[in-house]
Specification:
The structure holds two protein chains of two kinds. Helices cover 49% and strands 15% of the residues of chain A. Chain A is of the alpha/beta class. By secondary structure, chain B is mainly beta. Chain B is globular and about 25 Å long. The chains are: A alpha/beta, B mainly beta.
């Protein structure tokens, strides 16, 4: 058994359905020792692999859509990410996106980018994307976010070696001007940051716009600031979404090309039949009927034996 | 002509004119339901059920009440 202390820790982060767990399994292979990490309602999965004669521990986090929690497991991931001073905080956050749903995923990347923690960007499902006629300019993507970008296909293992090389490059992303807030609101945010004595602006933004504090003292501090300054939290959040998408749209067409002719989309063809307003229900009832019939038909055999 | 997405009957791509504030409006914005964006209804469930829409490359199912918050062309 391998008992050496892991010398390097990475965490896989991304939206649901981008293939994080597939990537996790590809990285850790059969050597992985999945254990349950104590969580409140969910479990983070842990595994490891060896690269450059060092053990790299991998944490597979549940998927989140954005840095705003809508459920308990999202809350856990966000708390985990914001607690960057913790002793067992990962050395590197591997942010995973899917080439199939790039724009929506880049929204999360843009948020993570502002957390000022070491991160690289992995574009997964490149195999499925090229089948759909999608091509992505990775160099341009790298430049747009100032992050190392690694294209992979976790299913086939393509790009995994490059990823194992890239993880050692754990530099913190360069500071950039916050584009998620209007200049008018910026002052308010700066005041809140000094109010809660935080040096990280986006952390302060997240703490201002959602209830993250568990400690009553901090909760009071936030509530007081919001009433005194009449902060419109909802507006701040809506503006964040608008501004971030504006940023992404400013370069998106240059990095993302889709050849419509090659686009054979099986899902939408199947959906057309299965989700048809009338036909869909007919198929649904037919399947149910089939199962119902099968139960009695199959059960008749053991019944006959017993008799 | 401006119409609520919940009452929009065409399956042609259209543009978002307005998203009402309140409820899950923040969440809708995160998913790209933003004024000016193009949106297309892929299918509608019968019996006043949810709508399946495409926004960018992303496909999202919306409750009728959420669709009513969105005004389209």
């Amino acid at each position: 058994m391998n008992t050496t202390e892991p010398s390097f820790k990475i965490a896989l982060l991304g939206s649901p359905n981008v293939g994080k767990t597939t990537l996790f399994n590809t990285l850790c292979g059969l050597r992985q020792r999945t254990g349950n990490y104590p969580g409140i309602t969910i479990d983070k999965k842990k595994g490891s692999f060896i690269a450059k004669e060092k053990t790299v521990e991998v944490i597979d986090l549940p998927g989140i859509n954005s840095l705003y929690a809508h459920s308990k497991d999202e809350e856990l991931v966000i708390d985990f990410l914001l607690d960057f001073n913790k002793k067992d905080f990962p050395d590197l956050i591997v942010t995973v996106v899917s080439a199939l749903n790039l724009k929506k995923n880049l929204y999360l990347v843009d948020q993570i980018r502002d957390l000022q923690i070491p991160t690289i960007l992995v574009v997964n499902q490149t195999d499925a994307a090229s089948k759909k006629g999608i091509s992505i300019d990775y160099q341009r993507l790298e430049k747009a976010f100032g992050l190392t970008v690694v294209p992979v296909a976790a299913k086939t293992g393509e790009g995994i070696e490059a990823l194992k090389e890239a993880i050692w490059n754990k530099k913190k992303p360069k500071d950039r001007l916050p584009h998620y807030i209007t200049t008018d609101d910026r002052e308010e945010l700066d005041d809140f940051a000094s109010h809660i004595k935080s040096s990280r602006l986006y952390h302060s933004f997240l703490r201002l716009t959602q209830e993250l504090e568990t400690n009553p003292q901090a909760q009071k501090l936030r509530a007081k600031f919001i009433t005194e300054r009449q902060v419109n939290v909802r507006k701040l959040r809506t503006n964040e979404s608008i501004l971030r998408y504006k940023f992404i749209n400013s370069f998106y067409e240059e990095i993302f090309q889709r050849d419509q002719e090659k686009a054979v989309d099986i899902t939408s063809r199947v959906d057309k039949i299965l989700l048809h307003p009338i036909g869909g229900y007919a198929i649904f009832l037919l399947i149910l009927f089939g199962i119902f019939q099968a139960v009695f038909w199959l059960a008749s055999y053991p019944m006959d034996w017993i008799d | 002509m401006a119409v609520r997405l919940s009452e929009y009957t065409s399956n042609k791509p259209t543009r978002i004119l307005e998203v009402e504030n309140g409820g899950e409006s923040n969440r809708l914005a995160e998913f790209g339901f933003i004024v000016g964006n193009s949106i297309q209804v892929i299918s509608r469930a019968p019996f006043n059920g949810p709508l399946f829409v495409q926004i960018d490359q992303n496909r999202v199912a919306l409750r009728k009440s959420e669709a009513a918050m969105i005004t389209v062309e």
